[in-house]
Design brief:
There is one protein chain. The protein is 84% helix and 0% strand. The two termini are 22 Å apart. By secondary structure, it is mostly helical.
Length: 476
């Protein structure tokens, strides 16, 4: 899964380089305005039931079939609601083109609903290679459509049909590889407890989405499409590499930890090993991106996007801790603590909204800086405590595991910051040198201490196990 995400990262990075030169910040800003609305509506399309299907140890065919049809009906209603909202979206932003853009994005709800049950079934079976292959194929075809349309002057419509193409190909691929076919919905099939669990997760998703997109809405409303496009692209540029590690691990971690809740010692050992890898690979990597943010923006987006550099850099402060903070969701969901997930959503939203209001006066940069600082010093420490109040993981376990990666990240930043201006090179060559230096510094920091050496040996052992299993599978 991680290897597949690496392929996706390369493909998405290459497409970003191309599309950023064919499209304008305003094109991305228009889509950002629509996604604020359609993304919120989409939170209700499966009521959190995909996650429930993965977390629950046993499910019947009748339950899955009932959930499939329920999800399809809900998604059809959401598509209709989106269509009705499209004129309001255009009026709110004073942009007539948003009516058609919003309506087209609504069609994606129905397409996505057709595949949600099939995807959950494949994840329960841990057929992650199949999911990754379908995902990459859908991504490639969507990018091809976007590039062709953008090169012919389609502008923002290239981004719209990129999304629709991806959803269609992904859905068709899942139906081809998944042998399950839905039956008729059945009353009293035992879905009520699943709906209650999904209700709490949906409540959290609603609050979290509001938190994640209120900044876009405020910037678009008070500062316009230009600043929104720059802010959204800087955010996307930061999240893109982080998601390459988080996305494959989320599904795997939830599936694995959900099966270990009856064995606290094994649960704790497995979670902490995963946390080690997340922190070890993400923290120094984000530090590298922060200190070379101007090179990254120039390489990936081009000189017209240089205003995004400082926004990218300050968002990176939060990005250092974000992958580690995301693992708190593994704990609460795998332990069946859906109410705690919803309660955290309320706390998190309150903190984030306050940070947006504080930074709004200074535009996109002010919001980015306020959100990052509030996250580092308030939100994440509070989350660590909240998520570990129950269960075999303690708050001190988290801090002990992230100290060494944080030290490595700080030394990576300082080392590259000190030497980068003394070496006059192109951004591309500079990134190669800085990346090699970041790897060497991180490795040296971990080799200095016995704990760091133990973590490196653990990674080596895992790689050997994976290679041995692949060789065994090939022989069989």
């Amino acid at each position: 899964m991680v290897s597949a995400q690496a392929v996706k990262f390369v493909v998405m990075g290459a497409s970003t380089v191309v599309l950023a030169r064919l499209l304008t910040p305003r094109d991305y800003g228009l889509v950002g305005m629509v996604v604020v609305v359609t993304g919120f509506v989409s939170l209700f399309k499966n009521l959190g039931l995909s996650t429930v299907m993965i977390q629950r140890p046993e499910l019947t065919h009748e339950q899955v079939s009932t959930l499939f049809w329920l999800n399809l009906v809900i998604s059809g209603a959401l598509a209709l609601i989106t269509l009705l909202l499209s004129p309001f979206v255009a009026w709110f932003y004073s942009e007539p083109r948003l009516t058609a853009i919003t309506a087209l994005f609504g069609i994606g709800f129905i397409i996505s609903a057709l595949s949600s049950s099939h995807e959950a079934i494949i994840r329960r079976q841990m057929r992650f290679f199949v999911l990754a292959a379908i995902d990459i194929c859908a991504l490639l075809l969507g990018i091809v459509v976007a590039i062709v349309m953008a090169s012919r002057g389609a502008g923002v419509w290239a981004l719209v049909f990129n999304q629709l193409t991806f959803l269609t190909v992904y859905t068709v691929g899942l139906w081809i590889v998944c042998s399950w076919l839905p039956g008729l919905p059945v009353r009293n099939s035992g879905v009520r407890p699943l709906l209650a669990f999904g209700r709490d997760l949906t409540g959290y998703n609603v609050l979290n989405y509001f938190t994640r997109n209120l900044d876009n809405l405020l910037i678009g409303k008070f500062w316009g499409a230009q600043q929104l496009g720059i802010y959204a692209k800087a955010y996307q540029l930061l999240l893109m590499p982080l998601e390459q590690l988080g996305i494959p691990l989320d599904g795997i971690a939830l599936t694995a930890l959900s099966r270990l809740t009856d064995s606290p010692d094994r649960y704790r050992r497995v979670y902490l090993r995963m946390l080690d890898k997340v922190a070890m690979f993400s923290m120094p990597g984000v530090a590298l991106m922060i200190v070379t943010s101007d090179w990254l923006v120039r390489i990936l987006l081009g000189p017209t996007w240089m205003e995004a550099v400082r926004i990218f850099a300050v968002l990176g402060l939060m990005g250092i801790l974000e992958p580690t903070a995301n693992t708190m969701g593994w704990l609460m969901i795998s332990q069946g603590r859906s109410k705690h997930v919803f309660q955290w959503g309320i706390i998190n939203s309150t903190i984030a909204v306050g940070s947006f209001i504080l930074g709004l006066k200074w535009g996109a940069f002010g919001i980015a800086l306020s959100f990052s600082l509030m996250g580092v010093f308030v939100r994440v420490p509070l989350l660590f405590w909240f998520a570990t109040r129950v269960g075999p993981i303690q708050t001190t376990d988290i801090y002990r595991r992230i100290v060494l990666p944080l030290v490595a990240a700080a030394i990576v930043f300082l080392t590259i910051y000190v030497i980068r201006d003394s070496v006059v090179v192109s951004p591309f060559v500079g990134m190669i040198i800085a990346s090699a230096l970041a790897f060497a510094v991180t490795l040296a920091v971990f080799l200095i201490t016995s704990e760091g050496r133990a973590r490196i040996k653990d990674v080596q052992m895992m790689i050997r196990q994976i290679l041995h299993r692949e060789a065994h599978d090939q022989m069989v």
